[in-house]
Amino acid sequence: TEATSLPQKDCSSITPPYPKLLKNLATVSRILDNRPLTLAEKILYSHVHDPERTLASGGIKRGETYLQLMPERVAMQDASAQMALLQFMSAGMSRCAVPASIHCDHLIQASEGADKDLERSIVTNQEVFDFLESAARKYGIEFWKPGSGIIHQIVLENYAAPGMLMLGTDSHTPNAGGLGMLAIGVGGADAVDALTGTPWELKAPKIIGVHLTGQLNGWATPKDLILHLAGKLTVRGGTGAILEYFGPGVFNQSCTGLATIANMGAEVGATTSTFPYTPGMRAYLQATGRAPVAAAADKAAQNGYLAADKDAQYDDVIEVNLSELEPTINGPFTPDLATPLSKFGSFIQENGWKDDLSAALIGSCTNSSYEDMTSVADLARQAKQAGLKAKVPFLCTPGSEQIRATIERDQITSQLQDVGATVLANACGPCIGQWKREDKKGEENAILTSFNRNFKSRNDGNKLTMNFLASPTVVTAMAFSGKLSFNPMTDSLPLPSGGAFRFAPPRGQDLPAAGFTPGETGYYPAPTPEPQPETQVVIRPDSQRLELLAPFGSPFGPGSGNERGLELPPLQVLMRVRGKCTTDHISAAGPWLKYKGHLTNISENLLITAVNDEGGDVNVAFDHEHSPAESETDTIPAVAKRFKARNQPWALVVDDNYGEGSAREHAALQPRFYGCAMIVARSFARIHETNLKKQGVLPVWFVDKADYGRIGSGDIVETRGLAALLEGRDTSEHAIRLRVTPRAGGAPFEIPTRHTMSADQLKWLRAGSALNHIRAQIAG
Ligand code: F3S
């Protein structure tokens, strides 16, 4: 079933309803006194639900107003789709309110190469794939089976369209911004909003303008632009904001290059990233069988929809001259530690690290476009001609079946294999820890990847693996040197025959001259299939990987055991978490991925890599009310489990940017499952904060960050003012105060907090979760 050329697609369900969007935008613009708008504002505001009603009170203030939005599509990957679907199922609907797709990519483990890995991973994950496939059939969702590719690449190739608003249950969903749209990474609970047709709420983001001038040249690639920006903005710099690129430097880049930039906007915490409609986007739509979408977008652009208005105001503007951009390498362990390539050798030396590279990895959702692959193949050809082979394991992950088949047809794959590359399955693999790496266990070593994320242990589960991020071409060139200090722009490599070899700057091609080929057509689902309600969704009763969800109870009212009315019951503080606490710390990936659909089992990993600020130990919590048979200290999940067994609701005290990193809703579900009712933070990462609200956990911010150190484990915390907030008597952001009774004695004291709960989010809190609220509405 290998097809040779890409057919035109049926574009009816993938063309944004531009006339309707423009009409909606006109209504919002009128409410905003026709002030000039940025592109991101236009896309957001054209998707506002019932603008006359929802915006009647006071227009829109960026960073303040909560928008009720109607996304047009939902995409889910196999790990996060499980919980999203389990939640959707319990909402009681017979079909999805918007088109949706499921992508089997995260559960494929990389080990020996594409075919064997795929075969083995299908067997290992059969029950999950059966569950996803049966749920997709029942509710009319497009199902992309294992081997079809990585969610973001498939979305870009098939669904993304200029001006569209989409939600995806993965933090790199913004990748689709490369096609001039807003694609936002969310948790499964937010996806359920869109799937049930419930307006999805988002605080109107600030808009950071990135003004691009000049032109990329030599070794500099779009990846280097975002690596450079990550260094400037840091992992927090984009929080609560959309990165909107504009200026002449946007227009001479390929659509897939823009997608790489948008993809890694997630690394600076941005809500998403977008670009005005470009000729590169038009060409990409046409090359991927979507000429009618391009034609409709052309028309929408003529009507002023797909670019910012002249004089549009940004909250901040960053200037980048692409002509001056140098290749950049970021890491280890954080994506914002940016070092220009020319300084990387001395950076390694100054830190006293070994100069050896242990593996080079290219591809992933971030960098596996045709342009990326032809660029690295150019380097492979040059190296082969010089008689060189990769000195370290060199792994390549194609982003989709379409890319795999096209690069195979165009002999790019064979050129990479000629110099020693292993081509892995079209899936996430080593990017998400699905890398069966045997050679460096427990050993300090350095790898270079063209991926997007580099938290400790992310790729191979070894916390001593220093993981650096770079463009695919820099990664490839380094693979031939095996040395981190090698600068391919200036340094030569010794040849076996004597003499020296220097790479010429790589040249790629953005689109294949012979067009894309879809490859195995069996991988492609029918577009917008009809639901088959008679389908039985497959969950084995003895399954260790899937479990139907039992709704969380409301903390208020009859049956809650709470005698404080609309205040939370008294909460015992489980621990004070020190420093960086990403969603990986709260709910680790790697081996735990297999329990994504089983809340009881996956909760065993709660906060297992978090540092307890009282004592500084990892995965240690104190149980001050332990029974004689129990120890005073135990692992964090074990103590949380004890609290649950005692019906003791609890709170966490956490540091800055708590929950950064991903849309992993398990990081919110798991504490809630064990009885967490409130988290008090110096600050929250946006997606995670929303996820906590969805699951009925109250997130509050310290007004005075120094108060963080005044609350410790075993202290009792009571809310004050929550009832007034829930009843609408005090709607201020400072409505909630906390009364703290220290465990060690001493006088109780009160601290002020700030909250970001909207009126609707308060309904979720009251109902016990957003899902409880939705179900009651459908039933009622
Ligand atoms: Fe997969 Fe890594 Fe992208 S996990 S979706 S390849 S960020």
Automatic annotation (TrEMBL):
SUPFAM superfamilies: Aconitase iron-sulfur domain, LeuD/IlvD-like
One Pfam family this sequence matches: Aconitase
Cofactor(s), by name: [4Fe-4S] cluster
Domain of life: Eukaryota
Main localization of the protein described in the UniProt heading: mitochondrion
InterPro entries per UniProt: Acnase/IPM_dHydase_lsu_aba_1/3 (IPR015931), Acoase/IPM_deHydtase_lsu_aba (IPR001030), Aconitase/3IPM_dehydase_swvl (IPR015928), Aconitase/IPM_isomerase (IPR050926), Aconitase_4Fe-4S_BS (IPR018136), Aconitase_4Fe-4S_dom (IPR036008), Aconitase_dom2 (IPR015932), Aconitase_mito-like (IPR006248)
Cofactor note: Binds 1 [4Fe-4S] cluster per subunit.
Keyword Iron on entry: yes
GO biological process: tricarboxylic acid cycle
Keyword Transcription (UniProt): no
Keywords: Iron, Iron-sulfur, Lyase, Metal-binding, Mitochondrion, Transit peptide
EC number: 4.2.1.-
Domain Aconitase A/isopropylmalate dehydratase small subunit swivel: 572-702
Top EC group: lyase
Span of domain Aconitase/3-isopropylmalate dehydratase large subunit alpha/beta/alpha: 41-482
Record-level Gene Ontology MF annotations: 4 iron, 4 sulfur cluster binding; aconitate hydratase activity; metal ion binding
GO cellular component, as recorded: cytosol; mitochondrion
Family of the protein in this entry: Belongs to the aconitase/IPM isomerase family.
NCBIfam families: aconitase_mito, PRK07229.1
Listed name of the protein: Aconitate hydratase, mitochondrial
